[in-house]
Amino acid sequence: MRMVDVIAKKRDGKELTTAEIDWFITEYTAGAVPDYQAAALVMAIYLRGMSRRETVDLTLAMAGSGDTLDLHDVAPFVIDKHSSGGVGDKTTLVVQPIVAACGVPVGKMSGRGLGSSGGTLDKMESIRGWSCNMTLPQFKRQLAEIGLVLSGQTADLAPADGKLYALRDVTATVASAPLIAASIMSKKLAAGADAMVLDVKMGSGAFMPTVESARDLAQIMVDIGTDAGRKTVAMISDMNQPLGSAIGNALEVKEAVETLQGGGPATFWAHCLDVAAYMLLLADKAGTLAEAKELARAARDDGRAFRKFRDMVAFQGGDVAQIDDLTLLPQAQFVEPIIAPRSGFIAAFNTAAIGWASVHLGAGRLVKSDQINYAVGLVLSCAVGDEVAQGQVLGMIHADDRAKLEQARAEVVTAVSWSDTRVAPLPHIYETVTA
Ligand code: URA
User: Fold this and answer.
1) Would the CB of 225 count as within 6 Å of ligand 1?
2) Whether residue 111 has its Cβ less than 6 Å from ligand 1
3) One of 10, 82, 300, 365 is an active-site residue; which one?
4) What are the strands of the beta sheet with 377-380, ordered from one edge?
5) Is 12 annotated in the active site?
6) Which of 66, 241, 372, 408 lies 20 to 30 Å from 401, alpha-carbon distance?
7) Parallel, antiparallel, or unpaired: how do β-strands 393-399 and 334-339 relate?
8) Strand pairing category for 393-399 and 246-247
9) Which of these is catalytic: 84, 183, 204, 245?
């Protein structure tokens, strides 16, 4: 087979065969197909789409590009969650320890920032020494000992996704349902969880702009998970505004820890409670969503969830002093307010533009080799529906560079739309999708 023929076929809108998809994934993983040809193919997929059969084939080929874990020798039932990506989405940092503290082992393979959306691993790496690199025996030992692991994409698990994910991030090919479905589900199938909750985001900061497109993505992922014998539920949640207040790596770790300690923004906590409750339901820890929420709330209120998070940080080499005293996390040199340019009601955010403002401050990557600045980002103190007076503070910018600070200020102000009449606040969940 020749890569140029595979690219041309997809460029012309034709369906790739199972053999062609398998061949591409095998050769790209082995380094025999260069990044520029892989980039051309993913752009063709982005523009032309994939049929359901092609998407399933791509997922299975990617899942099979490395090892597949069986975790049953260390845990009888393992649960996982995954978000399709959003701005300020630090849900994993809160939900994982809550669920683990309720006695359900959580073994998770997370990703890095993608486009305007941050990545869990980048966030956690703002903690000095914390590492997501581990061998399979280490993954299993930690799962057995503390019931909670947050690993990176190892060279052994779904390596094709590791390579494609980094490539898509810098070639404007992220927002494609087949590519997102294959990326997420290949990792989930390879990582050996028995059940998973998929948090599919929709809106101006998500890769899926509407509930309908998010539903299509959710349904194909739920079908792939179910066919593979994993209990899978997807929830479609809002990304028409950043989740919580903090956007940027250390700022999000701080907000997550505060939330685990009973503080944090109420809307973010409500979202975490929902995700945690669905995970506990799938694990048969509760009979109803309300009961599951009570379990999750109790694990936060009595400090078990925070202790679990702290254990995970310590196990993975992180400096727990920075968790015990959040002022020790990386701090930006300049912290300045964003001022409301007019009075009125906040009607909408261009959430992706806010995510990009944070990336431009240095919190994310524009090219694969960019180094993250963990300290920088934004902390917004307003939401859709809020009534704001001219001159009021909309949020704070944390920056290490004056020019970037001014750029971010302009980007955030432009990302806000106003109304003279009252606007309803946004829901945080629209619907759930099951098999
Ligand atoms: N999360 C992933 O793991 N992959 C994507 O493509 C998007 C979000």
Assistant:
1) no
2) yes
3) 82
4) 246-247, 377-380, 393-399, 334-339
5) no
6) 241
7) antiparallel
8) unpaired
9) 183
Cβ partners under 8 Å of residue 207, min gap 6: 84, 85, 115, 117, 174, 175, 176, 180, 201
CB-based contact 78:107 (threshold 8 Å):
yes
Report residue 207 as tokens.
């890769």
**Whether the CB of 65 sits within 6 Å of ligand 1:** no
**Could you tell me which residues come within 8 angstroms of residue 32 by beta carbon, excluding any fewer than 6 positions away?**
none
Best residue among 110, 165, 171 to mutate for probing ligand 1, ranked by most atoms within 8 Å of CB: 165
Residues 128 and 222 in one domain: yes
Q: Which residues contact 12 (CB under 8 A, 6 or more apart)?
A: none
The pLDDT score that the predictor gives to residue 155 is 64
194 is catalytic: no
Q: Return all residues near 423 (Cβ < 8 A) that are at least 6 apart.
A: 345, 346, 347, 384, 385
Last residue of a domain, one of 324, 349, 368: 324
Cα–Cα distance, 115 to 119 (Å, whole number):
10
**Active-site pick, 57, 80, 161, 169:** 161
Query: What total number of domains does the chain contain?
Result: 3
Containing domain of residue 33, as a range?
A: 3-49
pLDDT band at 191; cut points 50, 70, 90: confident
- Is residue 114 lining ligand 1, measured as CB closer than 6 Å? yes
Choosing from 90, 123, 187, 231, the catalytic residue is 187
Neighbours of 133 (CB within 10 A): 13
Q: Is the CB of 183 under 6 A from ligand 1?
A: yes
Angle between helix axes 159-169 and 177-191 (nearest 10 degrees) is 150
pLDDT, mean of residues 323-334: 98
Tell me if residue 168 is catalytic: yes
Same domain assignment for residues 301 and 341: no
Q: Is the CB of 84 within 6 Å of ligand 1?
A: yes
| Cα(415)–Cα(384) distance, integer angstroms | 12
Helix (H) or strand (E) holding 180: helix 177-191
Does residue 205 share a domain with residue 352?
no
Least confident of 12-16, 36-40, 94-98, 108-112: 108-112
Position in ligand 1 atom list of the atom nearest CA 183: 4
pLDDT at 135: 85
Is 360 catalytic? The answer is no
Residues 7 and 117 in one domain: no
